[in-house]
Amino acid sequence: MRPDAVAGEVSTVRATGAFLRSPSHASRRRRDIGARVAFTIAGGASVLVTVAILVTLLRDAWSFFGAVDKGALIDQGWFPRRGMYDLRTLLVGSLLVTGVAMAVATPLGLGSAIYLSEFASPRLRGVLKPALELLAGIPSVVVGYFAISFITPEIVQRIWSEASFFNLLASGIGVGILTVPLVASVSEDAMRAVPRALREAAYALGARKVVVCSRVVIPAAISGIAAALVLGVSRAIGETMVVAIASGATGGSLFSFDLLRPGQTLTAAMAALGAGTDQVKGDSLAFQSLFFVGALLFFLTLILNIVGDFFVRRIRERY
User: Fold this and answer.
1) Is the dihedral of CA 43, 49, 54, 59 positive or negative?
2) How confident is the model over 59-89, as pLDDT tens digits?
3) Of the candidates 254, 242, 222, 236, which has an alpha carbon nearest to the alpha carbon of residue 297?
4) What is the pLDDT averaged over residues 185-198?
């Protein structure tokens, strides 16, 4: 090796050593260690909180399940103060509200996403997209009162005069209104993520915008659209306030498939039990059933998310 090259390497090693021994390097290293410790504590705390919630939920849910008469789990309705814990009432009520909500949110959300992604001008999109996302910020309690003050009297009861003031249909429509921004926003992001080259190739073949949208953009973004719908279902099935207000938060309901009558869902039943209205008097297991319903809701949404994730992976387009 040439003497000048050896001298250069020695100089580099000395400069590196001086840098590592400098106060600024030590200070940066301490900050890196501090940041690593802080982020590790934050991540560990979130895991511990999740584990604590699960342990509390499953422990009390198992305690309720071990003490309750199993025949009370399939009864005429959900009346915890009377010792009637019919789970079918809550499951059917939750599925009905979720079905109505998605029947509202799917066409409106996907239609909004397609328009914003493919048809709206950049200036109009800059106005409509924030307005749509602003709708997601409306408190659900406001939508609940909107459901009983407008949806029920002006829509539901005008079409079905026999509908009661509190009903599951109005609840489902209200939940659907809350779900529209979520479906629209996630779907629109998925469509805009489709490479522009795919659109331009279709236009080069003479395809119209409608054809490009329906046969190129939507199939290419189908995994994102499916994810948006899965998120929408999870949002709808977990909504509480709208259902508690608009479907008759009496803490109990008879088993029924009738959308025009009051009903009870998993979340609304938990809200009623958590508020204490069902433990003033009555069956001693009424309050403990809250944890069992919570565990049921947890596993329901967990299974839904796992199935949705599997489905999204199967249909994901790679380009």
Assistant:
1) positive
2) 888 988 888 888 888 888 888 888 888 889 8
3) 236
4) 90
Dihedral of the alpha carbons of 278, 282, 285, 286, in degrees to the nearest 10: -20
| pLDDT tens sequence across 227-258 | 899 889 988 998 888 888 888 756 678 888 88
Grade residue 173 by pLDDT with cuts at 50, 70 and 90. Answer: very high
Question: Rounded to whole angstroms, how far apart are CA atoms 232 and 230?
Answer: 5
Give the predicted TM-score (pTM) of the model: 0.80
Distance CA 218, CA 190 (A): 9
CA angle 167, 172, 176 (to 5 degrees): 155
- Contacts of 68-75 spanning 24+ positions with Cβ under 8 A: 68/285, 68/289, 75/255
Of 63, 58, 72, 52, the residue nearest 297 (C-alpha): 58
Q: Quick one: average pLDDT of 272-295?
A: 74
DSSP codes joined into one string, the chain? --HHHHHHHHHHHHHHHHHHHSHHHHHHHHHHHHHHHHHHHHHHHHHHHHHHHHHHHHHHHHHHHHHS-GGGGSSSEEEGGGTEE-HHHHHHHHHHHHHHHHHHHHHHHHHHHHIIIIIS-HHHHHHHHHHHHHHTTS-HHHHHHHIIIIIIIIIIHHH-TT--SS-HHHHHHHHHHHHHHHHHHHHHHHHHTS-HHHHHHHHHTT--HHHHIIIIIHHHTHHHHHHHHHHHHHHHHT--HHHHHHTT-SS-EE----TTS----HHHHHHHHHTTTTSSSS-TTTTTHHHHHHHHHHHHHHHHHHHHHHHHHHH----
In this structure, what token pair is assigned to residue 310? 């599997």
Residue 21 has pLDDT above 90, yes or no: no
Give residue for tokens 């387009």.
Answer: 317
- Quote the CA–CA distance of 284 and 82 in Å, as a whole number: 10
